[in-house]
């Protein structure tokens, strides 16, 4: 069962960023690009039984026909089948004033979208996600937690740093994939994506 208690000693925030795009782009293709990338990287939905990471979807349609979306995705990945470490991504989409438009591309009319799209991503390293060291029995908990603290601060310290670095790199690879698709400035040059840029 998935549990997340917020940022604390066992849920370490490793990366946090926001991507904003106010240009013409294809929302459905962006959505699919991120979804497929997460699957290729080994991320699963928090219930680990479907390929749908969406836990919340809201669409408002205004009198002008413009749309607003609020979409929340939650995904996890257990690196190297670890029983102690887990990666957790919170991905929130917000779109404002979205409308479908037609553009000319290589002599053909194509449907695409225009509006403001904001994507917030937070990456957490979860320690002892099965609560084996923290325990569920309140009587045993202080004793187990002392051992957990000792292991984290001494024995697992180098491992924790290595997992933090790996998750940080993973989170920023995702940022670069999204920015490249949207033709935004990236941190470093990326190979060409499978999806055409901006979905056109």
Explain this structure to me?
This protein has one domain. Helix 1 (about 25-40) packs antiparallel against helix 3 (about 155-180). With about 200 residues, it is an alpha+beta fold. Strands 1, 2, 3, 4, 5, 6 and 7 form a 7-stranded antiparallel beta sheet that branches. A hairpin with a 7-residue loop joins strand 5 and strand 6. It is elongated and about 65 Å long. It is built from 3 helices and 7 strands. The chain starts with 10 loop residues before the first strand and ends in a 19-residue tail after the last helix. Helix content is about 25%, strand content about 40%.
Order of helices and strands: EEHEEEEEHH
Number of domains: 1
Shape: elongated
- The stretches of 5 or more residues where confidence is low (pLDDT under 50) are none
Tell me the β content.
35-45%
The whole-angstrom Rg is: 20 Å
Mean pLDDT over the full residue set = 82
- How far apart the termini lie comes to 40 Å
Helix content: 25-40%
Count the E strands.
Answer: 7
Secondary-structure-derived class: alpha+beta
Largest pleated sheet:
7 strands, antiparallel
Total helical elements:
3
Task: Show the helix and strand layout.
Elements: E1 11-21, E2 24-25, H1 27-40, E3 44-45, E4 54-61, E5 67-77, E6 85-105, E7 108-127, H2 141-155, H3 157-181
Antiparallel strand pairs: 1-7, 2-7, 3-5, 4-5, 5-6, 6-7
Helix pairs in contact: 1-3, 2-3
């Amino acid at each position: 069962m998935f549990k997340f208690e917020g940022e604390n000693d066992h849920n370490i925030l490793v990366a946090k960023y926001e991507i904003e795009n106010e240009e013409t782009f294809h929302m459905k293709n962006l959505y699919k690009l991120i979804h497929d990338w997460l699957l290729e990287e080994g991320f699963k939905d928090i219930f680990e039984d479907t390929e749908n990471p969406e836990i919340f979807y809201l669409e408002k349609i205004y009198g002008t026909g413009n749309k607003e979306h609020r979409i929340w995705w939650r995904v996890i990945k257990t690196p190297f089948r670890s029983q102690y470490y887990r990666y957790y991504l919170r991905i929130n989409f917000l779109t404002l004033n979205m409308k479908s438009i037609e553009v000319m591309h290589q002599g053909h009319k194509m449907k695409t979208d225009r509006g403001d799209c904001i994507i917030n991503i937070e990456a957490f390293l979860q320690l002892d996600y099965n609560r084996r060291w923290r325990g569920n029995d309140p009587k045993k908990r202080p004793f187990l937690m002392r051992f957990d603290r000792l292991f984290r601060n001494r024995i697992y310290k180098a491992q924790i740093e290595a997992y933090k670095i790996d998750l940080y790199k993973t989170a920023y690879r995702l940022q670069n994939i999204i920015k490249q698709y949207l033709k935004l400035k990236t941190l470093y040059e990326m190979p060409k994506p499978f999806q055409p840029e901006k979905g056109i």
